[in-house]
Structure formats: C-alpha cells, structure tokens
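Box S1 | Example of a co-folding query
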Amino acid sequence: MIYDFENKTLQVKIVYYGPAMSGKTTSIKHLFSYFNKEDMLESIDNSVGRTLFFDFGVLQFKGTEWGLKCLIYSATGQDFYASTRPATLNGVDGIIFVVDSQLEYLEHNLCSWNELKTLFGEEIYNIPIVIALNKCDLDNIKKLKELDFVSHINYDRFKNLSLKKTIAIKGEGIIASFFQLIRFIFPQLNLKISVIN
Ligand SMILES: Nc1nc2c(ncn2[C@@H]2O[C@H](COP(=O)(O)OP(=O)(O)O)[C@@H](O)[C@H]2O)c(=O)[nH]1
Ligand SMILES: [Mg+2]
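Box S1 (continued) | Returned holo structure for magnesium ion
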C-alpha cells in the first residue's frame, strides 16, 4: 500500500489469482466494464485467447477526503510462477482467488492455491483474500461445494477470508467480491465512493 500524501491518494494492489481458465480475465473485464473503464484494461493474451502473462488495469475512486487508486492484476499459477510473480505479487494488498467450481477441477484449484501458500508462507494468513467460486451457472455438472474447498485450506487461520459464488460471464457476484476485498483492506472506509472519470 502506498500513501500519496501530496495527492491525498491511497494506492493498493489487488491480484486476481487462480488456475488457468477459471475466469480471472472474465471477472476483471466485468469489473472494468461495470465502471465504464474497459479502456483502462490491458490484457496480454496469446493467440488462443488465454492470458499469457496477465491483465492489468487501474481503477480510481474518490472518497470524501482521500482518493483510492487500485492497481488490478490477474495471474495464472504456472505462468505467473515462472516469470511475472516477483513484480506482481510484491506488495499485494488483497487477492481474489478465482476457483473453477467444477468438481473435476478441484486438484487444479488446490494446486494453484498451494502455490500461493508456498510463495507467501505464514504471511498468507495476513493477506485479505476473497475466494470466488466461479462458474456457478454450470448446473449440469458436478459442482464443487464451498466445503469441498474450505476443508483443504486452514480457513480459521486467515484474518480476512471470505467465500463468494460468482458467475463471471454474467457478472454475478463480481462487484460484491471486489468490494468485500476493499472492505477487508480498509475496514473503516466509507464505501459511498464514486469512480473518477
Ligand atoms: N459457464 C461459465 N463460463 C465461464 C465463467 N467465467 C468464465 N467462463 C469461461 O471460462 C473460460 C476461461 O475464462 P477466462 O476468464 O479467460 O479465464 P482465465 O484463464 O482465468 O483468465 C472462457 O471461455 C470463459 O468464457 C462462468 O462464470 N461460467
Ligand atoms: Mg486470463
């Protein structure tokens, strides 16, 4: 977190993390389009549309006294681990962990989660995290239940951890997840903030 006293702005870094294809880019795209900021989002994709490196964008909000500048990144476990991790996870203030809630992807999700744990060690328990159980619309397949995932993580050790169901392709739960994370980072913040154009 960076305090810019001159401009009365707080700067935070938020990372959407999770296994490949869980819906990170879709979630971020919805977030930016919700605030009419699609043009502020850069996605570095490869030719088949998967995020090769990361998505990056800035959202700025105006509070009553201080402004809030959110640097938002996405990163996929493996790619991220290999090359972009140091720059992006350094000084992260909050993580939205995007889970693919199809039961068959449980291992994928846990693998990515464990990567995060390995990177941060004990520090992970201090980082505000929202776990987004994404793809909740897929009713025809076996879905991962909240408990399936929670039973594999030390849920009680986290200071600020919450689970939310999301459907990124419809934008459901995306804004709520984002503001839950902001509330974790700034428990005192007056959330009646407006986006800066
Ligand atoms: N059914 C369904 N598909 C989704 C959802 N979110 C993302 N997808 C699809 O999953 C695929 C991977 O999404 P993407 O955002 O690129 O994943 P990323 O690799 O984590 O950035 C795309 O085909 C998306 O359209 C969702 O909530 N429901
Ligand atoms: Mg992506």
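The mean pLDDT is 85. Residues 18, 20-26, 50-51, 76, 98, 134-135, 137-138, 167-169 surround guanosine-5'-diphosphate (ligand 1) (CB under 6 Å).
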